[in-house]
Amino acid sequence: MFQFDFDIILKTLPYLLKEGMVFTLTLTALAAFGGLVLGTVLALMRLSTLPGLALFATGYVNLMRSLPLVLVIFWFYFLVPYIGQAILRTERPVEVGAFASALITFTLFEAAYFSEIMRAGIQSVPKGQLSAGYALGLTYRQVMSYVVVPQALRNMLPVILTQTIVLFQDTSLVYVISITDFLGAASKVAQRDGRLIEMYIFAAFVYFLISFLASLLVRRLQARTAIIR
Amino acid sequence: MNYTWNWGIFWELNPEGTGTYLDMLLMGLRWTLATAALAAAIALVFGSIIGVIRTLPHRGLVLAGDAWVEFFRNIPLLVQLFLWYFVLPELLPKAAGTWLKTLPNASFWTGAIGVGLFMSSRVAEQVKAGIRSLPRGQSLAGTALGLTTAQTYRYILLPMAFRIILPPLTSELLNTVKNTSVALTIGLMELTARTRAMQEYSFQVFEAFTAATLIYLALNAALTFLMRRLERAVAVPGYVTGK
Questions:
Q1: Contact across the interface for B90 and A197, Cβ inside 8 Å
Q2: Does A169 contact B76 at a Cβ distance shorter than 8 Å?
Q3: CA neighbor of B21 nearest in space, from B239, B210, B235
């Protein structure tokens, strides 16, 4: 029968956490923040009365949501250097680091999902609030940033956090472009030392623990912040 | 941009000797469809069973159902596929492990079952929500009519619940299709993997990815269309669910 070797995990734990988990968590946090900001902008565009803006935002969101994340990761991995070249007007495609490439990809991809959440959140704010804001003489920008979006964020906080947990799990897909995130680090050790079983079970355990505890916290938060209407 | 476009590349022969590059992508599409079909069937069957179990008045069963959902929902799909593909054969008795490893098309079976089980936790959530959304009086009425629990589910609760959750099930079906691309990590040559291969053989990165993007969009549109038709076909007259 198979003997589970805990030593290999203990020995490589500092590497797994410092190299891998730090990358995974930083990527998750930054992409969630960037995706939420961009997603809110997309949601506002989609709900705006300017048809061009609404059409663009709708198209972008639907396109992103129809494609597998793996394909999008490959797309940006090859596309970002050319975009950099176009923006910076350099001779050759810009070399983009692994982290930057992953961050751009996940921010742009998650923005589509966050935009759907924020759209629902914005629509959940009663119309009277908007009218009240305008009646007080606030501009569109003021109504949105002081009245509507804060409430939308609050109403949608549990969903936003749940989506962030999904994002945390999805960051493991940077494996396909050979980036050393947590899974990448575990996989490297697994292949170097021939310890596939230990490393993959351990990786699964860590992902499970973090996602499970985070979702428990979200559920508690949801119960506490729920507004009784 | 110093990138040389060559849209004619799709009609050139691929180095695998399986016809043109377009044939190569379409072959990938076929694997994507086969994997998604099997995965969707597994997700629907297991998701329905687990979803129903979680609404039963039996603590042990509810707990088991919850454990299933939490396990498959809280581990990234990629890691789950690695568990089934690399770890499971080693943990089984030797004969069974060898049989698994030498199975023809092992990455297809592992990919489809892995994606299916992963998606089953999401389907289970929908099924549970669908059953819960029915007025309590419906199951009470079933009991009052003398139906057993199984009969109440079969004839009263599930027919309505499945109709109610058809729209979210459509998005889960689309997610299933998209998720099959993760199986390229265990060597399944589905659409995204073939696109990658085409890019590596021909160096025409953006043509290959554009083609894959269009194929995925078309697939999404076709499935959405079919599911809408199904929704209309099974709709109960006078009972409006959603929009």
A1: yes
A2: yes
A3: B210
Judge: B74–A172 Cβ closer than 8 Å, yes or no: no
Domain A6-225 adopts which CATH fold? MetI-like fold (1.10.3720)
User: What count of other Cβ atoms lies within 10 Å of the Cβ of residue A56?
Assistant: 14
Q: Which residues of B touch A183 (CB under 8 A)?
A: 76, 78-79
HEC per residue, A26-54: HHHHHHHHHHHHHHHHHHHHHHCCCHHHH
**Interacting residues of B43 by C-beta distance below 8 A, sequence separation 6+:** B115, B116, B117, B118, B119, B120, B122, B123, B172, B176
Q: Do A73 and A108 contact (CB within 8 A), yes or no?
A: no
Listed by number, the residues of chain A in 43-72 with a beta carbon closer than 8 Å to a beta carbon of chain B are 63, 66-71
Best of B78, B90, B179, B190 to disrupt the A interface by mutation (most A CBs within 10 Å)? B78
Domain boundaries of chain A, sorted by first residue: 6-225
Class of the B30-188 domain? mainly alpha
Our CA-based measurement puts residue A141 at a distance from the nearest CA of chain B, in whole angstroms, of: 31
- CB < 8 Å to B179, chain A: 68
**For the segment A135-164, what is each residue's pLDDT rounded down to a tens digit?**
999 999 999 999 999 999 999 999 999 999
Query: Residue ranges per domain, chain B?
Result: 30-188
The answer to whether ipTM exceeds 0.85 is yes
Q: Between A2, A82, A187, which is nearest B3 by CB?
A: A82
| Per-residue pLDDT tens listing for chain A (229 residues) | 567 778 888 888 989 989 899 999 999 999 999 999 999 999 999 999 888 999 999 999 999 999 999 999 999 999 988 888 888 888 888 888 888 999 999 999 999 999 999 999 999 999 999 999 999 999 999 999 999 999 999 999 999 999 999 999 999 999 999 999 999 999 999 999 888 999 999 999 999 999 999 999 999 998 887 765 5
- Closest Cα of chain B to A128: distance in Å? 24
Q: Per-residue pLDDT for B17 more than 90? A: no
Among B74, B91, B216, beta carbon nearest to A207: B74
